[in-house]
Structures are given as C-alpha cells and as structure tokens.
Amino acid sequence: MSFNIITEARRCLNCKKPMCVEGCPISTQIPTVIRTFLDGDIDKAGSMLFENNPLSVICSLICNHDNQCEGHCVLGKKSTPVHFSSIENYISDTYFDKLDDRLDPGNIEKKGKRVGVIGGGPAGITIAILLARKGYDITIFESREKIGGVLRYGIPEFRLPKQLIERYKKLLLSLGIRIRPNTAIGVTITVDDLFRDGYRAVFIGTGVWRPNTLHIKGESLGNVHFAINYLTNPEVYSLGDSLNVIGAGNSAMDVARTALRHGCKKVTVFSRSEHMAAALSEIEYAKYDGVEFVTGVEPVEITEDGTIFIKSEKNSEGKRVRVEGTEKLYPAASTIIAVSQGPKNRIVSTTTGLDISDKGLLVTNTYGETTRDGIFAAGDVVLGARTVVEAVNYSKQVAQTMDEYLQSLTD
Ligand SMILES: Cc1cc2nc3c(=O)[nH]c(=O)nc-3n(C[C@H](O)[C@H](O)[C@H](O)COP(=O)(O)OP(=O)(O)OC[C@H]3O[C@@H](n4cnc5c(N)ncnc54)[C@H](O)[C@@H]3O)c2cc1C
Ligand code: SF4
User: Fold this and answer.
1) Residue 145 backbone dihedrals phi, psi, to 5 degrees
2) Ligand 1 test: best mutation among 28, 162, 206, 386, most atoms within 8 Å of CB?
3) Which ligand is closest in space to the CA of residue 159?
4) Which of 20, 85, 166, 201 lies in disulfide reach of 30, CB 3.0 to 4.6 Å?
C-alpha cells in the first residue's frame, strides 16, 4: 500500500478534547478507534465504528472530510491533518467481511413484529440493520431495481464502487431482511395496505428525487437534462461534445466529471456565487479532470445552441443583482441543470395524516415521529438534500424511537 495507514494512525496526538470528534456529525470516537487499532485490536476498532455508524465504510469514502473530521484536526492548523477517513476505511472494510459472524444473525431473538421500510437508501438501510438486529421482521420496499438510493443512482462509480452496495445487500439478506425491488409505495401498494397486512410500524426514507427547476425558457428542450436523472444512468444520454452545467454543488461536480468520462470534450460549470457549494476536494478533482468554471453568472435562457447567462454581482447592501445588458451565450451541445432536488409526493398524496412543510418535506419531531401514529421518517425526505452521515445519524435516533414504540404496542 503506497499510503501507510499505520504511520498515519501514529500521527494522532490523542487529544484530551478531540476536535475531530466534534467535527464528525455522527461523533465517531476517532482517537479511541485509532488507539484500539494501534494496540493491535482491529476487530474491536471495526466493531466500534460499525456500532456507531453502520455505514462507516461508505462514509469514510464520501464524507466531506475537509469540513468534518479532518477539517477539525488540530494538526491541520500548522500542517496536514490526520487522514482519519483512510484509517476508517481500512478498518471498516476489513471488519465488514467478518460481520456475518460477528452479528450472528441466527441467534437474534425474534420479536414477531413486522416493520416496513420504504426506501433502500442510507436512511432505510440503517433502520433496517438496526431493527433487524433487535429481532423485528423487516421488509425494505425499493422503487428502483436495486437498493442504495443516491449511493447507487447518484454518486458515480469512480467515487464509490457499487460493489460496496452489493456487500450491504448481502449483509441485509443475512440478517433476514426481505427486499422488494421495483416496488414504489404510493403507486400500486399504499402505506395503508402495509398496516392492513400486519406491519406494526412504517419507516419512510424516500429521499429527494424531484429535480428543482429554474423556471426559465428552454428547460423542456431536447438537449437539456436534470442532474439526478442524468446520474441515474449516464450511458443512455447523448450529450454531444460540449456541456454546460448549471449549479456548483456536489451533484454538479459529479455530473461534470461523469460527462468527461463519457466522451464530452468540454465541460463548464456555471455558478452564481464565487463561493461554490461543493466540497473543496470535489472542486479540485473536477479542475484536475479538466472541468472549466465560470462564476458570478445567472442563467436566463437555455437554447439549442447553449446557455445564455447574465452577470451577477453583489450590490452595496451585499445583495446579488443582475448586471443588465451583460447577457451572453455560452455555446454547448447540451445543458444539465444541477440545482438540487425536492421530495416526490407519491406517499403523502396517498396517505392521510402526514403533514408536510412548504417544501414538501415530511414533518417529524426530533425523534422522527411523523404526524401519523406508527409512521416514522428520516434522511433527506425530512432534512432536505443533505449528506449520508446525517441521514445515518438521524436514522439511528429514529430506530431507537421505533423500537420503543413497537415495544409499547400490546399484541
Ligand atoms: C449526485 C449526488 C451526490 C452526492 N454526494 C454526496 C457525497 O459525496 N457525500 C455525502 O455524504 N452525501 C452526498 N450526497 C447526498 C446523499 O447521497 C444523501 O443525503 C443521502 O443519500 C440521503 O439518504 P436517504 O436514504 O435519505 O435518501 P436516498 O439516498 O435518496 O434514498 C431514498 C431511496 O428511496 C427510494 N424511494 C423513493 N420513493 C420511494 C417510494 N415511493 N417507494 C419505495 N422506494 C422509494 C429511492 O429509490 C431511493 O433508493 C449526494 C447527493 C447527490 C444527489
Ligand atoms: S463518519 Fe465521516 S465525518 Fe465522521 S469520522 Fe467518518 S469520515 Fe469523518
């Protein structure tokens, strides 16, 4: 291995007040994990990581480390922070293959209560693992062919190998969890059907899959697409030689880098603000891949020949305003709009008693209880487009609430 994990682990100062832990949204006990690993107990270190974060092996690859754990490491103030994500990945990856034995699925005492999990993304996978280990009978309903959510149908292979999601599928099946692919709840089967069929509680982790639009002329043209649709299956798109990407978040970087790998010769990302929303490391990777950037512009129209932008700058009050008369066509064969997503309404439109926010997100209390008894929710469908580690962290809390709720039910 070119990067020596052990040497890197030895750089940890084992701080009394570890800032890295504060920077991690799921409070991974970083110095303790590192000490345990260096003491020669990689299994215990792996177990600590998995018990705290069942998706540790995935988070270690795709978390925004620069802003989270590693960005808070005190060593980073004067030199390079400890690259904990690489250490975490090594430990969690090694431990993952031993999980079947360690979790000992055959010995889990069954509770005899059925739970429906709608959505097989990070939130649904977390809930399913945690509740199956408590003895509940879990079925995951997934609208797509395969589980994984954004991990499978958003984040490209070069950032997150899909084979990792297959390993999760194997783990879920070994825990006795049933998976119903190609089953969108709220279409043929509704939430009420689940209660009719003996499910005692239902979890909704359906994420945000409705692309936000710009409401400008040209969005319906044949050479215009939305980021999340493109990333689902880039092979089926014929973008031509050049692409304009509107928006500068992580999805935009994924689109730009994917398009270059699928034959586009020139890809340009356009951002209204000079400060781009994507993780710094993702922007850097995109630049090294050859993506070009134009900042301080707003799209006004999309045409068959490219995208028309107008300059945007801050006025004396710090408010962004358009600079009239600066409209300019940036030629491109295709344009992809990457300005985040909102939730679809298949479930809320077919289920009574579920309150939603003005953005269409499910309303829950801090324990993940929706406004209808027995229905719980977490992840992006509650928080809006956020991160994997936040979806897992929230789902951990909700799994505990669901367990308490299910235990309180008299048969
Ligand atoms: C392109 C892109 C790149 C990203 N990159 C990163 C990153 O690098 N790091 C990071 O931490 N986060 C990243 N994110 C955000 C992160 O992926 C999400 O925050 C996370 O996946 C949310 O998990 P979730 O389980 O709530 O939702 P999702 O991952 O969206 O999963 C929801 C699942 O529910 C299914 N579903 C939807 N409706 C139904 C229905 N009616 N019935 C049955 N199933 C249904 C969907 O098919 C999907 O499988 C990225 C997001 C995008 C779009
Ligand atoms: S879960 Fe993410 S933020 Fe936390 S330690 Fe792991 S890589 Fe860092």
Assistant:
1) -65, -35
2) 206
3) 1
4) 20
